[in-house]
């Protein structure tokens, strides 16, 4: 992070003090691997400025006026796609939206030709989701625009992890300069094997000083993750005990080739995060889920809709987090 810049105010709030925000040091956001603790904390400060914009009567600033964002979703999405588009429009960017199912991919056009076609329309940044790991990285070779990873295979989902950690910080920050993460325990329970959310969250929470416990059936809990300074367990009780945050992950049936689980019912009997389990957690424990949820499979409805749940807050925070990403990549240089 090297420079600061002010968010231009909109007409309604001309008189308001402008807010200093930090710039991302990179052209792209592909993953979080080389982010430092200070960079995460600075990014959250930028997100605070964007969250203030979203509290205004007119939720729009001209920061990205004249910029065009393309959302390239080769895999389905509800919250990530809409949230990126909301974030772009809140900063006055133009948005062009590509959906694989209704595109010329079905006529045999390649991903590269698809990108070059959209690139000819003068795009400044692409938000990319693909079922295959590494596609966002590959696209950086074919365009001068910024590439933002909106989830690639089981590898990375950086903005999801940023919004998850930002949500935790909102709940636990207090007066703590470390963001409130130091010494806290987060349990991530579910299909860790196929989860890009888990991989990105491991990076951010460990970098910020939290203890991460991963929990799931043996077949869905890859042992190599032990190298990432996390604890693995097959016991939900052990994972949840004393936890400040419990994140349930979706059973990713679309990625589960080879019958890794006997049945979803058996899974929910042993691994569901529910009221009974959460009694073992810290008194202030929050319940998280990146969505989409399979209610009564990985999480009980009672808990998902209960007072500990911050699941809707996670979705809400997706907008300022993604605004901060756009701003940092496209403006704050
Ligand atoms: N959390 C998440 O990535 O949700 P979507 O698949 O709906 O974008």
For the biggest sheet, the summary is: 5 strands, parallel
Number of strands: 11
Low-confidence stretches: 1-5, 8-23
Number of helices: 11
Order of helices and strands: EEHEHEHEHEHEHEEHEHHEHH
The CATH superfamily of the largest domain is Aspartate/ornithine carbamoyltransferase
Distinct bound molecules: phosphoric acid mono(formamide)ester
Structure report:
- Strand 7, helix 6 and strand 8 form a beta-alpha-beta unit.
- This protein has two domains: 162 residues, Rossmann fold (3-Layer(aba) Sandwich), CATH 3.40.50.1370; 153 residues, Aspartate/ornithine carbamoyltransferase (Rossmann fold), CATH 3.40.50.
- It has a five-stranded parallel sheet with strand order 9-8-7-10-11. A four-stranded parallel sheet has the order 4-3-5-6.
- 34% of the residues lie in helices and 15% in strands.
- It has eleven helices and eleven strands.
- It has 333 residues and is an alpha/beta fold.
- The protein starts with a strand and ends with a helix.
- The structure holds phosphoric acid mono(formamide)ester (CP).
- Phosphoric acid mono(formamide)ester binds next to helix 2.
Please give a quick description of this structure:
The protein has 333 residues and is α/β, with parallel strands linked by helices.
Task: Please describe the topology of this protein.
Layout: E1 4-6, E2 20-22, H1 37-54, E3 68-73, H2 79-90, E4 94-99, H3 111-119, E5 125-130, H4 135-139, E6 146-152, H5 158-172, E7 185-189, H6 196-207, E8 211-215, E9 231-233, H7 236-240, E10 245-248, H8 264-271, H9 275-278, E11 286-288, H10 301-304, H11 311-330
Parallel strand pairs: 3-4, 3-5, 5-6, 7-8, 7-10, 8-9, 10-11
Antiparallel strand pairs: 1-2
Helix pairs in contact: 1-11, 2-11, 5-6, 5-11
Bound molecules: phosphoric acid mono(formamide)ester.
């Amino acid at each position: 992070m090297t420079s600061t810049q002010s968010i231009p105010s909109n007409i309604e709030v001309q008189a308001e003090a402008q807010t200093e925000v930090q710039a991302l040091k990179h052209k792209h956001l592909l993953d979080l691997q080389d982010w430092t603790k200070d960079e995460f904390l600075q990014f959250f400060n930028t997100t605070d400025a964007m969250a203030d914009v979203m509290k205004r009567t007119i939720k729009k600033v001209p920061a990205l006026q004249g910029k065009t964002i393309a959302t390239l979703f080769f895999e389905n999405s509800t919250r990530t796609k809409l949230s990126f588009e909301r974030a772009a429009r809140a900063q006055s960017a133009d948005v062009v939206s590509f959906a694989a199912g209704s595109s010329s991919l079905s006529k045999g056009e390649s991903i590269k030709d698809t990108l070059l076609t959209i690139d000819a329309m003068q795009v400044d940044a692409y938000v990319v989701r693909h079922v295959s790991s590494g596609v966002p990285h590959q696209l950086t070779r074919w365009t001068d625009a910024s590439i933002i990873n909106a989830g690639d295979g089981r590898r990375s989902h950086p903005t999801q992890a940023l919004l998850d950690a930002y949500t935790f910080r909102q709940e636990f920050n207090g007066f703590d300069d470390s963001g409130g993460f130091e010494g806290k325990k987060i349990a991530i329970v579910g299909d860790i094997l196929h989860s890009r959310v888990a991989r990105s969250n491991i990076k951010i929470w460990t970098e910020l000083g939290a203890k991460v416990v991963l929990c799931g059936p043996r077949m869905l809990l890859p042992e190599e993750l032990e190298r990432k300074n996390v604890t693995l367990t097959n016991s939900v009780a052990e994972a949840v005990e004393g936890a400040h945050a419990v994140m349930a992950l979706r059973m990713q049936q679309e990625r589960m080739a080879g019958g890794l689980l006997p049945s979803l019912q058996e899974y929910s009997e042993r691994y569901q995060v529910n009221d009974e389990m959460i009694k073992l957690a810290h008194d202030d424990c929050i319940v998280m889920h990146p969505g989409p949820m399979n209610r009564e499979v990985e999480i009980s409805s009672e808990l998902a809709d209960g007072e500990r749940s911050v699941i809707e807050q996670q979705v809400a925070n997706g907008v300022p987090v993604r605004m901060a990403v756009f701003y940092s990549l496209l403006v704050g240089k």
